[in-house]
Molybdopterin molybdenumtransferase (Flavivirga aquimarina), 392 residues
Amino acid sequence: MVSIHDALNAVKNNINPLFKETIKPLERCGGYYLSKDIVSPINMPPFRQSAMDGYALFLHSDLAYTLIGEVKAGDSHELVLKPGEAVRIFTGAPVPETANAVMMQEKVVVNDSKITIENDIPVAHNIRPLGEQVKTGELALKKGTKLTPAAIGYLTSLGITEVAVYKKPSIALITTGNELVEPGKPLVYGKIYESNSKMLLNALYNLKFYDVTIHKIEDDYIKTKNKLETVINTNDMVIVTGGISVGDYDFVGKALKELQVEEVFYKVKQKPGKPLFFGKKEDTAIFALPGNPAAALSCFYVYVFIALQKMVNKDIVELPRVKAKSVSKFEKRGDRPQFLKAIYNDDEVEILEGQNSSMLQTFALSNALVFAPEDVSEIKHNDMLEVILLPN
């Protein structure tokens, strides 16, 4: 059995970035990382642009101007102004070539075709210059940049429709157990509805990992071994829930050993999630999580999350940890460190009732995990606690 510290380091040291490239439509690249530099194909803005509603002026020595027309956003006609002439203009509209300033409308008095501005203004006032954001041929975004909604909007504004990104891992989710029934089917005595696959699938979707397949195995050794062999050979990551303990019908560990999966660690001194397995075979990472749903999800956020981030980016990214003041009491039993479901709000944290590893009701209300070290037996009001913020 390994410590949490050693288990975390083992995950970090045994997962490498995939660095496999794929070309994807830009609108489907949220959360991906660029695998190549992006050079701008255009100037942005592609013309001199008015920064506000007002009047574009060809500046001269007087405050009075002759109004000769109007330019709206999207207009493509090009007006030519002489000194002392102006056009009505709107935000985002192209500024006529000979205009050299824009006065906001609130500082202009209009009298038919004559306008008077309140004061002199400098050249280029309220004009967004050609290529202010980026010029043709300049670096728009560098390799390794994460494609956030803002980044996707920015690249779209440059007319880019697809980009080269690092491929995200293909992931197989496996649930085991004869007691599991698919929701929607009758629930007979001795059976429970299977929830781990939907829970972990949505945890992955929430992190923008979509290349996921779900597989369900009965408590049968041959079927377990054959399915594991298939998914290990065809995926970048395999996540198994259940069947990793030492019961008579827990076949996952035995099958992984026969398939020559390298065991990095098995069993962590923690609660929940003691029977956690992490191993690898060639470039495929294998996590066997406990079958109890709350334990499985805790292990996912603490360990699998790190592995996923390392696969898509060379930087190690863990969930954020903060210090917060306890507004509740908790008595910890045993000498294992614990991850406790909690609600974090404004530098305070409440440890919830119902910490059993089989119970998801409390987890459904949580937005954080409190880490209680092994040498802590009691948490009191106002104690400062280490809190892991969940990506909910």
